[in-house]
Amino acid sequence: MKTINKIDNIIEALSRHEDPKSVSILEEIGTNSEIDEIREKTAHALIKKNTTDSLKVVVAKSGKGINDLSARVAMSSINEILSLNDKSEVLKVLEETMNSEEQKQDIKDTARSVKALITYSM
Amino acid sequence: MKITQSNFTLFKPLSKEERQEVHSNPFGINFKGNVLTSDVFESSKAKETNNTISNPFAAVTGKSKMVASAVVGSMNSFNEAFRSRINSIISFGRQVKDTIANSWEKAKNTEITLDFKGLAESISSKFNNQYSVNNLLKRPVDDLHAMFALEHATYKESLKA
Lengths: 122, 161
Prior knowledge:
- The complex is a heterodimer of chains A (122) and B (161).
- Chain A has helices spanning 3-16, 21-31, 36-49, 52-60, 71-82, 88-99, 105-121.
- By secondary structure, chain A is mostly helical.
- Chain A has a single domain, classed as Up-down Bundle (Transcription Elongation Factor S-II, Chain A).
- By secondary structure, chain B is mainly α.
- Chain B has 2 domains: 5-86, no CATH class; 116-160.
- Helices cover 63% and strands 0% of the residues of chain B.
- Chain B contains 7 helices and no strands.
- The mean pLDDT of chain B is 68.
- The chains are: A mainly alpha (122), B mainly alpha (161).
C-alpha cells in the first residue's frame, strides 16, 4: 500500500473515531503539515466530523481550513462546508467566530463570507 | 476358363515367424493352411435351397464363381500393401496407448497440493491489512497518532527525494 493511501486511511479513521482526542491529532499533524494535500485532506476530515471542536479548527483558527494561506485548501474547505447535509453546527461556529472579540478581523471577515455563501446556497 | 491351383497357393496362411513380423492380423482372417478352391464361395446351404427358394444370391452361376475366384487372387498383392498399412496403424495405436499409459502413470504419481495457509495469508494481507479503515478504527487514537506521524514523515521524505 502506498504511503499516501495509508495516510488517507488514517485521516479517514480519525474523522470517524469517537474519541475527542482524534480532533487534536488531526490538528496537530494534519493541519500543521507543510504539504497542501495533507492539510486539505485533514480539513475535509474535520468538517465531515461536524462537531463543535472540529469545526472550530477549520473556521476560527488562523492558517487552517477556510483561513489557509493556500487558496486551493481554503476553497476546498469552503466547498466541503457547503456540501454538509446538516449545517446547523457550522452556522453556530461561524456566528461565534464573527461575534468574538478576540478574533482577528480577517478571520471574522472570512467567517462572514462563508456564512453568506451558506445562506445564499440554502 | 479355369484358375490353376497355383494361384491359390498365395492364400496360404503366414508362418508363425511371418505372423510375428506383422504383429497381428487385425481382422482375424486366417485360412489355417487350407487351400481355397473355386467352390469356396458356394454355400452348401445355398446349394440345398437353390431349387426350392427363389434367392437371387443362390442363383450364382459357375462362371461368376470363376470371376470371383480371380478377383480373390488379384487381391493378394493388395493384401500385402494393406497389411503393411495396417501394421503402421497398429504401431501408431500402440504408441498412442503407451503414451496415454505413461501419462496416466505420471498423473497417478503426481501429487497435487494446495497451500491453503499461504493462500489465506495472501488474501488476508490484501483485504485485512492493518491500514484498512475498519482495522484502524479498532485501534486506540494514540496508535493512530503514532502511525499518522510516522507515515506523514515518510511521505514528506519521499517528496523531497
